[in-house]
Design brief:
DNA Primase, Chain A, Dna Topoisomerase Vi A Subunit, Chain: A, domain 2, flat
């Protein structure tokens, strides 16, 4: 794995990648005055444009769905890319060569620059063309074409998914790529060639080839199915590209490049087991199907899908696992049950009773049968519980007790507590015992399970209440001063900003923003650690200032004076209340000091009032 991208390169990309040009690839922007552009938000449906871009500041913000950030945040969200993938994409866009830091250990692997990465990607693209040409034209590929036809895939389907054939030669691809200028070192690093006894040879021979693409559509590896008999080829039935600087099998889902938009749109992901299953599903109209690449579905895959499904506690999408109906498939489903607790999405299982995989089901019974399989999905919780019950003899008292002891902890593990009572009742029905007995067993299992902390439970409401209402009348002045300070800091001459009273910003979010500004000589999202405060920063940076025309020093002086006047007026009211509770005879010194302070505050308030009026 290559090291981290150097921080100075990230900063360079953030500053140099023009956000309005990047956004314009996805959103039609129109000038909105004041150096701003706006259009219809690509992240939620709307009829009136509320999506604003401020090119001079490098930020975007939607005032409808509250999504905002810089050019990196936009590209990550719109194309569902990781941070590193986004930086590399933007670097390619502006023609900048990234530098990577060394890993912390020798096991980190070679350091790969963006230029090297581009060469490896290009080599894979040329290899894919070579393999496809071989499948379409080579007489030796006839047995591969026959197998694909028998599986229900015609030439058009193979072209759609880029299926190819690696010739039964020692170095056919290697020679082809060497002729295009790629070095042996590059081909070995890419996992396309390897060293044989007499020199470099092809990694794949006499196999059907499926190009594996990352989420952005770049080919990063291949999945290969053998065609020769076991006597001729001692290798595994399926052979994948080894781990390379651009290919990590635990971080790739086959078909994700074509399924990602439908997954995000339909809030559904269908997980199948093989390359032909993905092809069959898409051809049958299930356009949200993806597959792992020679590895079990794991935590990295969950993170990928969470990005696509926008996983949080206020949303529920669907993740549907399809497994073979045999014991291995059931084991995979139960393993997914343990991982499911990392999803907030609703998770289901679709298993064909006859034991057919999706490709076989489509081949034997047609597209409709495959669509029906997905439609008949059952919740993963139900599948896992019933699978456990199948191991016990429910027609005996001992069997029912053992089944209850085994299944009750599964119910207790369900993260969504609102689902537990329903599954408790279902379990009681499946076992044929009283609900109260199952309820006690589930409660006992829940006590044994780790509980969410109070902080975790209250985290979401706290996040929801963080953002102030932009239209709340009593807070508009505070908001306007902060917007001006963030967007036009040069207009705050001398000690204008520091003169603002400590309690002038009354909303906790605005007060926190003032603290963040004071803590940094130059405020930016990178120095703000709190996610909510970072979102507020981009919102205030993009939202237009209410001045008529371009803001001026007079305008800023006016709103600061009014903000201070309001803050001092609150102090005056508090002080008058204190004076009313003081006896001027018994507390003469304290009373006189407070009265003198009141006179000074009144004088300051009048001066600020006059200044605010005079600045307009």
């Amino acid at each position: 794995m290559s090291g981290r991208i150097k921080e100075e390169d990230v900063a360079y990309i953030r500053d140099r990648a023009p956000i309005d040009e990047v956004v314009a690839d996805y959103v039609q922007l129109k000038n909105a005055g004041g150096g701003q552009k706006k259009g219809l938000c690509p992240f939620h449906d709307e009829k009136s444009p509320s999506f604003h871009v401020t090119p001079s500041k490098g930020y975007f913000h939607c005032f409808g769905c509250q999504t905002g950030g810089d050019v990196i945040a936009f590209l990550m969200k719109i194309d569902h890319l990781t941070f590193t993938e986004t930086i590399e994409r933007l670097a390619d866009r502006i023609g900048y060569t990234l530098r990577y830091e060394e890993g912390n250990s020798a096991s980190s692997g070679p350091v790969v620059t963006s230029g090297t990465r581009n060469r490896l990607i290009a080599a894979h693209a040329e290899a894919a063309k070579f393999y496809q040409e071989q499948l379409n034209t080579s007489p030796n590929a006839a047995h591969g074409r026959d197998l694909l036809t028998k599986r229900g895939f015609d030439k058009s389907a193979c072209q759609q998914f880029g299926v190819g054939y690696s010739p039964d030669e020692w170095d056919g691809l290697t020679k082809h790529l060497r002729g295009l200028g790629y070095s042996i070192d590059e081909l070995e690093l890419a996992g396309l060639s390897k060293m044989g006894q007499r020199g470099p040879i092809d990694k794949f021979r006499n196999r059907l080839m499926w190009p594996i693409k990352d989420i952005s559509g770049d080919i990063v590896g291949f999945g290969a199915r053998k065609l020769a008999s076991d006597e001729e080829d001692q290798g595994p039935k399926y052979l994948n590209t080894s781990e390379t600087p651009i290919y990590k099998k635990s971080q790739v889902l086959y078909g994700l490049d074509v399924a990602k938009k439908e997954i995000a749109k339909k809030r559904q992901a269908v997980i199948v087991e093989g390359y032909t299953d993905v092809m069959a599903a898409h051809l049958a109209g299930i356009t949200t199907a993806v597959a792992t690449c020679g590895t079990a579905f794991g935590a990295d895959h969950i993170r990928i899908l969470r990005r696509l499904l926008m996983d949080d506690d206020s949303f529920r999408g669907e993740v549907i696992f399809t497994f073979d109906g045999d014991a291995a498939g059931q084991k995979a489903a139960l393993r997914a049950f343990s991982e499911d607790q990392k999803f907030v999405t609703q998770t289901f299982v679709a298993v064909e009773p006859d034991g057919l995989d999706p490709c076989e089901l489509r081949q034997e019974k047609g597209d409709l049968a495959l669509r029906d399989l997905i439609a008949r999905r059952v919740p993963l919780f139900e599948f896992a519980i019933r699978a456990e019950l199948a191991h016990h003899k429910l027609d005996t008292a001992e069997g029912r007790v053992n089944a209850l002891n085994a299944a009750a902890p599964l119910v207790a593990q369900i993260r969504d507590k609102s689902l537990r009572p329903e599954y408790t009742r279902l379990l009681a029905g499946w076992l044929g015992v009283e609900v109260e007995i199952v309820t006690r067993a589930v409660a006992q299992g829940a006590k044994a399970a780790p509980q969410q902390s109070r902080q975790q439970v209250e985290e979401v409401p706290a996040q929801q209440n963080f953002r102030p209402d932009p239209n709340e009348a009593r807070l508009i002045l505070e908001r306007e001063v902060l917007k001006s300070r963030l967007q036009e800091p040069q207009l705050f001459e001398g000690d204008l900003w520091s003169s603002i009273e400590p309690g002038a910003f009354t909303h906790p979010a605005y007060s926190a923003m003032r603290t963040a500004i004071d803590a940094h000589e130059k405020i930016s999202p990178e120095v703000i650690t709190d996610e909510n405060l970072r979102a507020l920063f981009t919102e205030l940076t993009v939202e237009p200032i209410r001045a008529d025309g371009k803001p001026t020093q007079l305008y800023v002086a006016s709103i600061v004076a009014r903000l201070r006047e309001v803050a001092i007026s609150r102090s005056i009211a508090d002080l008058k209340s204190s004076l009313q509770r003081l006896n001027p005879v018994e507390n003469e010194i304290e009373y006189n000091a407070a009265f003198a302070q009141l006179v000074a505050l009144e004088s300051a308030r009048r001066s600020l009032h006059d200044l605010a009026l005079g600045s307009l």
